[in-house]
Amino acid sequence: MLAAPAPAQELRGHGGPVRAVAVSADGQFALTGSFDQSAILWRLSTGSAEKVLRFHQGAVNAAATVNGIGFATGGEDGRIALWQGDANEPARVIEGHKGQVSALAVSPEGGSIASASWDETLRVTSLADGSARVLEGHKGPVNGVAFAPGGAVVSSGYDATLRIWPAGDGPARIVTLPAPLNGVVVAPDGEIAVAAADGRLRLFGPEGEARAEIEIGQTPLIALTLSADGATIAAGGLRGQVALIDRKARAIRATLLGPGLPVWSLAFLPGGKELLSGGADRLVRRWNAVTGEHIGTVVPRAGEDVLAAFQGERGAQVFRACAACHTLAPADGNRAGPTLHGLFGRRIATAPGYAYSDAFRTLDIVWSKETVAKLFELGPNAYTPGTKMPEQTIGSAEDRQALVQWLEKVTR
């Protein structure tokens, strides 16, 4: 009899930080979202990418499992997409937010999806009829959302408040904390855990009463998840550490050490014995959540510096500000911005596989040394209205010239 294949150790395919991870209820599939504007559907038994999903105009920040449908993604464009099977297009799109969607949660009975946004609101949308309840009160980006037993909604925000919204009408119970808050989870018994920018995990009762505080590290906690049985909390930070916390014991029982880069997303597999982590190095790693050991070898380095070979070239040094969003080689694909391979002579908004905004598609620009230099002389907002590119200019004409000459050489 042939042995079953070992599960894939790493999932490789994204061109940017992996901002979101969700696992199907049967543990066969995962959906990941990235700063590269794509979501990828993975078969976990083989580690193969079943489908690359491109819909959002901007980073895919959130993912959730929706039983009976498949997965949901939330994006920088303020939209939520529901994906069914391996379809290329969403089965349904939910709109309403005026800022990027930062977190998603599905109600225990599966009838509603809650979304947190940087527009300072939460929306609880019925999956049956699309009606939405809007929850307002946060004074800044809302970074986390979860459902509590009984239908209450719990949220965490940059305004350093934890808010417990009743299932019916009525004001939220507000708990103010010493630091901005990121992720939030709620256990089956109603206990709330929230990750804070001061590196501490804080636990509260169902009514917001403080119960415990656990120091995870000195840097912000930016990812949080809970095993289905509520026994184990996983919290990830900016320096790449992931702490596995025994919730009942209020103690860290293992620390997962990756390559030292931020961990942006976490998800347990069914049963709670394995964990997926998505990081700034574009990889999804698989961990044994019992022993704390990585499944496969972790290479303890910050990643390859693709510009090291061009040390001393002024154009390469100027390009460093662009390297997080754009690749140069054909094999590296798109990230948050399109690949620059083959840039010169290419009409704007035509790089293969990249989701451009509608405004960008209407522009009449062909990229040349002159037009690229003009982009950085005037700034993206002025030269290419409708762009999602960060605003930056290069004031020195010599630096602009060095950049375009270097790009012409390395993007052929």
Q: What does this molecule look like?
A:
The chain has 412 residues and is mostly beta strands. The chain has five helices and 28 strands. The strands form seven sheets. Strands 1-28-27-26 form a four-stranded antiparallel sheet, with no helix packed on it. Strand 3 and strand 4 form a beta hairpin. The chain is globular.
Present the secondary structure layout.
Layout: E1 10-12, E2 18-23, E3 29-34, E4 38-43, E5 48-54, E6 60-66, E7 70-75, E8 80-84, E9 92-94, E10 101-106, E11 112-117, E12 121-126, E13 132-136, E14 142-147, E15 153-157, E16 161-165, E17 173-176, E18 181-186, E19 192-196, E20 200-204, E21 210-215, E22 221-226, E23 232-237, E24 241-246, E25 251-257, E26 263-268, E27 274-279, E28 283-288, H1 314-319, H2 358-361, H3 369-378, H4 380-383, H5 397-410
Antiparallel strand pairs: 1-28, 2-3, 3-4, 4-5, 6-7, 7-8, 8-9, 10-11, 11-12, 12-13, 14-15, 15-16, 16-17, 18-19, 19-20, 20-21, 22-23, 23-24, 24-25, 26-27, 27-28
Helix pairs in contact: 3-5
Keywords: Electron transport, Heme, Iron, Metal-binding, Transport, WD repeat
Domain Cytochrome c: 310-411
Organism: Bosea vaviloviae
Major beta sheet summary: 4 strands, antiparallel
Average pLDDT rating: 89
CATH architecture annotation of the largest domain: 7 Propeller
**What is the CATH domain class of the largest domain?**
Mainly Beta
Strand order of the largest sheet: 1-28-27-26
Can you tell me the overall shape? Answer: globular
CATH topology annotation of the largest domain: Methylamine Dehydrogenase, Chain H
Number of strands: 28
Q: Poorly predicted ranges (pLDDT <50, ≥5 residues)?
A: 1-8, 298-303
User: Regarding quaternary structure, how should these chains be classified?
Assistant: single chain
